[in-house]
């Protein structure tokens, strides 16, 4: 009897797995298939063979719209600019969610869900509350901190240069971006550059977690159990959740400090970092009754500017993770491209010398570095690193240009194909040509779904301007004194890895003191 029951359960599970796996086959939609129960999940969490490059290969084989399954989830991959623009901008109300791995949590119910993962009214509340942190006034306030971090990195570089050593610029840029985000987001009062215990833990978020993605991708209910048990699980098994613990300690310490100050009659001043900003909005109200059925980006509703304690922690986590990795990668790609294109580097140095003649670079001078903006844009066109964020979730069945997206379906943009499409960019699409951005004809490409390094529409990366400021400051500081050069150990072409972001394995080079300024 037990054997019969067990066999029936196995048959039921297998039948269900095949039914889910055959979703796109039954709809007549092409795409890679994988295996029942798993689909293409294994392919899409392979660090050594990035999924983002596989999408490009599959797009060539199956066309600009195709589908695959990942465990029980269905994903449609698109690389048509018009579809991207419709989904990310024009029909945002039907696609306001984001594709999430189960381990991230339920965007409707999880108490520590952050702005990246939240959707609907909860997302709008978190976004509205966080936006002032990235205004011009806020960026001006943190500019000096960013520049201090840049100066410290250059001091460490100077020691390497004096010894004639090569430098893996990716590692140095990671120290820089973690130094910046630790100080402006987490209230770190002094530099811990090159001795920050947080660095290996944050890197583990992007380099590890294969087992978590696989287990919870196949069996999503496991995600809830792992999240609840995270405090008692080994750090190597749940690296991201240990970061939550560190942030929780930092937030509790700040709450205690503020309570002590209040007892001593000290008035709270302006927020010094993101923790202060979020704690100023802290409330004990439970927002989990927010319903999204009638969500609309254009709806005129009063947005409650309050956060729960768990949301404070979630917000700090996402700013730490996003602020660390993507900016370091963007700097790495820009440096590699400048080192391998000395004529472009010389033109950029001339602009830096002209617009930033003083030892300290002012906020207004940064806005005059127009060619540097072109260099950064072109680097992100050639190496779109954060394509994991270029996803949406269909919230209600929608048909666009004859393509039907079912409710609950994930949409993934093949950003690499989009940014390397010769029909959009011309026959020189594979060339590093920053001057293409000096042509006004390229301006519309940033608004029609053809160029999305920071996403597009209402959910475009909120930290974009901070990231650009960090890059400009450090590139300008570096190029005033040095030229980037390749060595025999520079990977040409770069070997790309990563499952959450697209990263070079290394960016080894040397910095040569400029002879023209001696």
Automatic annotation (TrEMBL):
PROSITE patterns cross-referenced by the UniProt entry:
CYTOCHROME_P450
Instruction: Provide any one GO MF term from the record.
Output: oxidoreductase activity, acting on paired donors, with incorporation or reduction of molecular oxygen
Protein name, entry field = Cytochrome P450
List positions binding heme: 461
SUPFAM superfamilies the record matches: Cytochrome P450
Signal peptide extent = none
What cofactors does this protein use? heme
Role, per record: Cytochromes P450 are a group of heme-thiolate monooxygenases. They oxidize a variety of structurally unrelated compounds, including steroids, fatty acids, and xenobiotics.
| Keywords per UniProt | Heme, Iron, Metal-binding, Monooxygenase, Oxidoreductase
Task: Please report which protein family the annotation says this sequence is part of.
Answer: Belongs to the cytochrome P450 family.
């Amino acid at each position: 009897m037990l054997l019969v029951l067990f066999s029936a359960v196995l048959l039921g599970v297998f039948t269900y797995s095949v039914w889910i796996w055959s979703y796109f086959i039954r709809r007549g939609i092409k795409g890679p298939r994988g295996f029942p129960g798993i689909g293409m999940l294994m392919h899409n969490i392979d660090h050594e063979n990035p999924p983002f490059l596989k999408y490009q290969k599959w797009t060539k084989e199956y066309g600009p719209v195709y589908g695959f399954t990942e465990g029980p989830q269905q994903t449609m991959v698109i690389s048509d600019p018009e579809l991207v623009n419709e989904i990310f901008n024009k029909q945002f109300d039907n696609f306001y969610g984001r594709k999430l791995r189960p381990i991230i949590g339920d965007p409707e119910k999880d108490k520590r869900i952050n702005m990246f993962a939240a959707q609907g009214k909860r997302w709008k509340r978190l976004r509205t509350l966080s936006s002032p942190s990235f205004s011009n006034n806020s960026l001006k306030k943190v500019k000096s901190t960013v520049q201090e971090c840049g100066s410290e990195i250059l001091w460490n570089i100077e020691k390497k240069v004096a010894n004639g050593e090569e430098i893996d610029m990716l590692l140095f840029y990671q120290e820089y971006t973690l130094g910046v985000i630790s100080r402006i987001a987490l209230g770190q009062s002094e530099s811990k550059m090159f001795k920050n215990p947080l660095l290996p833990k944050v890197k583990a978020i992007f380099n590890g977690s294969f087992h978590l993605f696989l287990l919870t991708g196949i069996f999503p209910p496991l995600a809830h159990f792992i999240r609840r048990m995270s405090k008692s699980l080994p750090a190597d098994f749940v690296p991201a959740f240990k970061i939550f613990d560190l942030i929780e300690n930092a937030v509790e310490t700040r709450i205690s400090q503020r309570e002590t100050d209040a007892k001593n009659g000290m008035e709270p001043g302006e927020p010094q970092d993101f923790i202060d900003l979020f704690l100023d909005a802290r409330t004990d109200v439970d927002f989990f009754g927010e319903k999204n059925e009638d969500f609309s980006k254009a709806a005129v509703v009063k947005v409650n500017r309050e956060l729960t304690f768990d949301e404070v922690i979630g917000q700090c986590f996402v700013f730490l993770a996003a602020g660390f990795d993507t900016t370091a990668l963007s700097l790495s790609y820009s440096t590699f491209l400048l080192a391998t294109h000395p004529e472009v580097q010389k033109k950029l140095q001339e602009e830096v010398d002209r617009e930033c003649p003083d030892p300290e670079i002012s906020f207004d001078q940064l806005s005059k570095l127009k060619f540097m903006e072109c260099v950064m844009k072109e680097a992100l066109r050639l190496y779109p690193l954060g394509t994991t964020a270029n996803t949406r979730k269909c919230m209600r069945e929608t048909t666009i240009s004859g393509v039907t997206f079912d409710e609950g379906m994930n949409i993934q943009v093949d950003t690499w194909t989009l940014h390397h499409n010769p029909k959009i960019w011309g026959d020189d699409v594979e060339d590093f040509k920053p001057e293409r951005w000096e042509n006004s004809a390229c301006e519309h490409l940033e608004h029609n779904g053809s160029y999305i390094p920071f996403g597009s529409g209402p959910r475009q990366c909120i930290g974009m301007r901070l990231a650009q400021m960090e890059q400009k400051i450090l590139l300008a500081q570096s190029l005033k004194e040095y030229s980037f050069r390749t060595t025999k150990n520079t990977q040409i072409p770069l070997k790309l890895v990563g499952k959450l972001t697209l990263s070079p394995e290394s960016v080894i080079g040397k910095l040569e003191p400029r002879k023209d300024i001696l």
